[in-house]
Design a protein that fits this description.
It is globular, with a radius of gyration of 24 Å. With 364 residues, it is an alpha+beta fold. The protein has nine helices and twelve strands. The N and C termini lie far apart (100 Å). The protein has a domain of 196 residues: LCP protein (Aminopeptidase, 3-Layer(aba) Sandwich), CATH 3.40.630. The strands form four sheets. The chain has a six-stranded mixed β-sheet with strand order 9-4-1-2-3-10, sandwiched between helices. A two-stranded antiparallel ribbon has the order 5-8. A two-stranded antiparallel sheet has the order 6-7. Helix 4 crosses helix 5 and helix 4 runs antiparallel to helix 7.
């Protein structure tokens, strides 16, 4: 009799546990759904960002803080930059069209990645133009590569603000205008975002192998489709030199690799499952990115992932060049006619086309 009572109690306990688990799972699912809908509705109530009218430091950055390593120790007056040719300073903007300057800094504060991007909020399309880091810029300094702009601006004065202003001026000489928003990120941001989206799948065309004991750098990425975490994706995006017997690549191939990583990250970000992780991405921005996008701006752009449909809505380009200077500096000469055509077709935020005279490109 006692055995039967124990069995009855066990069955009752198991039944109670099953009921509890069902209620818990259903409640969790309902709560997640409510949070997701609340997030979507919250994003819908946020309007599109206002276009900045001055650059770089008069913009209210809201909650965005200066990340570690980009501290601004200079209390001098902010450096302003002309944002477009004078004939565009009136009401000549395309509706709901936003542009971005994206700069990826290495440990030494040199730019390994420089991109000008646009988002068309009417047609829900995005374009990204990579500008080769070795581009010859019309500036008065010993190293006239675009890659040195941020560090030069920091050292010359203004700290990070001076660095941003210098990059903006030099990018304007290439594309004819200063992009509305700037996003200056370091390697930690790159790695953390990729880890946050669960890694990325990238096709590796050949075995990438490089060892540099002085930097404690060891890259070994086999060919084929690879699932990469943040660190591996960073190695893939940075790879250029190789060990003897392995294949090096050019800067243009490295740009394509960087674009492949960004494309994979964007594809993962557009997954519905990542909508609840947007606060995590914003926290990564706060810790590792210097930008004039405020919190509401980021939420509005984050909400746009619901209306960007498929890979055909994001287009990658590379600024055309016209040969190299060769040794010792290996400057890349930019091709002004090709750049004007590309800019007008993709990232120009104005109704009127830019002209070659609006650029300041040194010709070969």
């Amino acid at each position: 009799m006692e055995s039967e009572n124990n069995n009855a109690k066990d069955k009752s306990s198991k039944k109670g546990l099953i009921v509890f688990l069902k209620v818990f799972l259903i409640s969790t699912a309902l709560l997640s759904t409510v949070i997701a809908f609340a997030a979507i509705n919250f994003y819908r109530n946020i309007g599109p960002p206002e276009i900045p009218t001055t650059q770089p430091s008069a913009i209210n950055r809201g909650p965005i803080s200066m990340p570690s390593g980009l501290d601004n120790d200079d209390d001098s007056d902010p450096v302003m930059a002309l944002i477009a040719p004078e004939r565009f300073l009136g009401d000549e903007r395309r509706e709901l069209f936003f542009t971005f300057l994206i700069v990826g800094l290495n440990e030494g504060k040199n730019a390994n990645t420089v991109m000008v991007a646009s988002y068309d909020g009417i047609n829900h399309e995005a374009n990204l133009i990579s500008i080769p880091r070795d581009s010859l810029i019309n500036v008065n300094r010993s190293n006239r590569k675009l890659s040195g702009a941020f560090l030069n601006g920091m050292v010359s004065g203004g700290g990070a603000e001076g660095g941003i202003a210098q990059v903006q001026r030099e990018v304007m000489s290439v594309v004819g205008f200063v992009p509305d928003f700037y996003v200056i990120f370091n390697y930690d941001a790159f790695k953390e975002v990729i880890d946050a989206v669960g890694g990325v799948e990238i096709y590796v065309p050949f075995h990438m192998r490089y060892d540099d004991p002085l930097q404690d750098l060891h890259i070994d990425i086999p060919p084929g489709l690879q699932h990469m975490d943040g660190q591996t994706a960073l190695y893939f995006a940075r790879f250029r030199e190789s060990n003897r017997g392995f294949r090096p690549i050019t800067d243009y191939q490295r740009i394509k690799n960087q674009q492949a990583v960004i494309d994979a990250v964007l594809s993962n970000l557009m997954r519905p499952s990542n909508i609840l992780r947007i606060p995590e991405f914003i926290e990564i921005f706060n810790n590792n990115v210097y930008t004039n996008l405020n919190f509401d701006d980021m939420l509005w752009f984050a909400s746009q992932h619901n209306v960007i449909r498929g890979e055909d809505s994001v287009h990658f380009h590379t600024a055309p060049t016209d040969g190299s200077s060769g040794r010792p500096m290996w400057y890349e000469f930019l091709h002004a006619p090709g750049i004007v055509e590309l800019v007008n077709r993709t990232v120009n935020p104005f109704r009127e086309n830019l002209e070659i005279g609006d650029l300041d490109i040194i010709r070969q």
